[in-house]
Amino acid sequence: MTNTFCIILIVIAVAAVSVTVAVVLTKLSLKRKISFMLDALEDGETGFKYSEKRFSVFHLNHTLNRLRLIFDAEMKKINEQNRYYGNMLDNISTGIVVVDTDRLNEGKVLYCNSAASNLLGVPSLVNIRQLDVVSNELRKAFEDVGGNREMRVSYYNERNRITVSLTSAESSFNGRDVRIISFTDVEHSEELSWIKLVRVLNHEIMNTITPIASLSDTLSKDIKEGNINKEDLKNGLDTISSSSQALIKFVNNYRNLTRVAAPVKKPFYVRELIDHVRQLTDNQLKEASVNFTYKEKSDDVLLYADFTQISQVIINLVKNAVQAGATRIAVESVINVNEQVIVSVSNNGRPISSSSCDEIFVPFYTTKQNGSGIGLSLSRQIMRLHNGSISLDRSDEKITTFSIRFN
Question: Which residues share a beta bridge with 406?
């Protein structure tokens, strides 16, 4: 009996030791598998697969394989998105360069699209210092641009002289602080603007001259053949006169657009400017039952600018809002972290169509029946003379917002 009991105890002890060893070995095996999988995934390697033939490790290996497949699918999705955005950035005319600002002194470039390589004349850009080969001024501009301000620099490539306009924005990517620098060929942009301008000029002038020429030809033939009375002649001449006056008005508008006076700057508070605009547009606002409000997000927003010219810019925006059927116009001013004064003018009128958003600052482009098409283009000219800018930030069914920035 005693021997039997001893044998039982020995068997139990052996079994316990076996179980303990099995558990330890299983844990070690699990640790090794997980450690291997994490190292592989960290290196982007997903080609491994654990065997699922043995029943004892089937569930464990099956679970690890599922995790590998999920990770692989997510990596493919991310890579596909990266290719999509990469292709999109490579098919725009604006140069994009992303610089690691954590290593700004080293000039490390994290990304450079095709337009940037073409404009800079380098096959690939991995460091800002490479630009010294093109131009020292160009390299310095890339290092100094910041604070949402525009910089311009000229340099020569193999064919001709190029002037680029640079702007930048700070952001973060994968835990790094980065600077996104965008730049365009100024002369090319201006060439496109001139093409648009010539197209509009051609449209406006031809629309006026064609009926004048046609009517003059008709009247001349009728007079020659004796088939016209005084009333018809008077009506024809009146039509020619009114069309000619419209053409003269158009030419005068063009003259005004090309002869913007240099700004006479003085200091004044934005609230004084808005009070002046409110007085000048008061009758128009009351007739259209428009609620006009002004709000300062910073204390005592001060401008150093041409009071009359900036008044005209804001008056243009207010009148456009009223003509768009707005019932609310809200003006706000703020001094941002870069010490820029920003005046925004928002309204709830009819939105600007997406097809017109890129055209509204082109001279003589208008969607209004009796519009001159110079209000916004003149406003942009004025803001450029003030080293500032005017832009359409948003236009939808809820709100249309223009921003005026003073650097």
Answer: 341, 388
**C-alpha distances out from residue 31 to 36, 65, 75, 254, Å:** 8, 15, 24, 78
- Provide mean pLDDT across the span 271-290: 91
Instruction: Give the pLDDT band (50/70/90) at residue 364.
Output: low
Q: Please check the confidence at residue 402 and state whether its pLDDT lies above 90.
A: yes
Predicted structure pTM score: 0.45
Q: How far is it, in rounded angstroms, from Cα 19 to Cα 94? A: 68
Mention every residue, 6+ apart, whose C-beta is less than 8 A from residue 65. Answer: 49, 50, 52
What are phi and psi for residue 261, nearest 5 degrees? -70, 150
Contact 399, 348 (CB under 8 A): yes
What is the identity of the amino acid at 312? Q
Residue 154, number of CB atoms within 10 A of its CB: 13
Handedness of CA 296, 293, 345, 257 (dihedral sign): negative
Q: Specify the DSSP element, H or E, that contains 405.
A: strand 400-406
How many other C-beta atoms lie within 10 A of the C-beta of residue 343? 25
Residue 293 to residue 278: CA distance in whole angstroms: 9
Distance CA 125, CA 138 (A): 13
Are the beta carbons of 46 and 76 closer than 8 angstroms?
no
CA distance 388 to 299: 21
Mean pLDDT, rounded, of the chain: 76
Paired with 304 in beta bridges are 267
CA distance 36 to 31: 8
Task: Assign 291 to helix, strand or coil.
Answer: strand
Task: Give the residue among 249, 252, 320 at the shortest CA–CA distance from 284.
Answer: 320
Q: Find the mean pLDDT for residues 266-275.
A: 93
